[in-house]
Amino acid sequence: MSGYYEKTCTAPVNIAIIKYWGKRDVSLNLPTNSSLSVTLSQDNLQSKTTIRADPSFSKTRLWLNGIEEDVSANKRMQTCIKEARRLRSLYEQQLLRDGNSDVVPLAEYNLHICSENNFPTAAGLASSASGFACLVYTLAQLYSLPNSTSELSLIARQGSGSACRSLFGGFVAWEMGVNYDGSDSIAVQIADEHHWPELVALICVVSDAKKTVGSTAGMQSTVKTSPLLKERIEQVVPKRMEEMVKAIKNKDFNMFAEITMRDSNQFHAVCLDSFPPIFYLNDISRAIIKLVNEYNAISSDYKAAYTFDAGPNAVIYTLRENVDELAGLVKRYFMGEERGQIPSSFRVDAVPI
Ligand code: 2P0
User: Fold this and answer.
1) What's the 139 CA to ligand 1 centre distance in angstroms?
2) What's the number of domains the chain is made of?
3) Closest approach atom of ligand 1 to CA 19
4) pLDDT, tens digit, for every residue of 263-298?
5) Which residues constitute the domain of residue 115?
6) Are 130 and 44 in contact (CB under 8 A)?
7) CB-facing half-sphere around the CA of 142: CA atoms within 13 A
8) Residues of the chain under the 50 pLDDT cut
9) For the segment 207-231, what is each residue's pLDDT rounded down to a tens digit?
10) Within this chain, do residues 40 and 180 fall inside the same structural domain, yes or no?
11) Among the three residues 172, 191, 210, which one is the final residue of a domain in this structure?
12) Are residues 142 and 226 in the same domain?
């Protein structure tokens, strides 16, 4: 057997509107609550991964944004590769049972994996989500796996929780599941990327700096120390998931906006309720919240909805008809002559769904 097999794929970033924060099983990445996100259009923020399988490779190697990393030190990456290989092995056995004599034993070959993002990795814009989704999707393509996207989401989830949602476009729920082995903790598509074309995300990059508290460590601290988290996962999120699905299906921006802002607020509230407290928002983030509230106050319906992940950068969802007005407002407020303490790296980009 000679020659190599290679695939290149891309995967997009997703921004949660009902946040994942808390793990009930750290090694399997099983969450304490379900979550829901919007996948942004591929062209703007994406990971791109090329994987080559070659019988002559002596070991599996990995390059992230052009720099070689030690795969053996990256347990989550190894888990994803191991799981994809296991599925490929099963598939090869199936093909052999079906009488195919020319099955390539790809599961045995070592891999060279090159992955890069077209946005700054440190900007806190869900690079692990698009990165692991891309790794798993590219492996699935390379191995011609017959598995469904939700089945593949089980693997991506073990790389990074939020990555399971980036395997679908549009509006995606990650159902927390109840099984101890995580077999029902999967991503499902609520509506596809064509469902609500009027919806646009304004990405406001407040800071390129790496986050101070990593997501995994932050979540573990919150699970251990925050009494408010219990209230959130038992009393708040289940109802919110149902309401958000309705809002999306009905394209009800008013309902969508209120739940999005409330859920971002509560996620940062449980961070503050952790002990010691975790702060992800900064003064500019809070000024963005104030600006969106003031913008919304001028009409009877919401026209914009902010959301913040584990960092100070804002994503503001709005409808296409308001994009120019809102982006103009943000730019005047944060990028004008009177910018004061606002860093020169501040920028705002409109990204379709
Ligand atoms: C989310 N975040 O739902 C939430 C909102 C940040 C705030 O998922 O440890 O990188 O890899 O499972 O997915 C960030 O955490 O954490 C995240 P791991 P992940 O998008």
Assistant:
1) 22
2) 2
3) 3
4) 999 999 999 999 999 999 999 999 999 999 999 999
5) 5-191
6) no
7) 30
8) 1, 122
9) 877 777 889 999 999 999 999 999 9
10) yes
11) 191
12) no
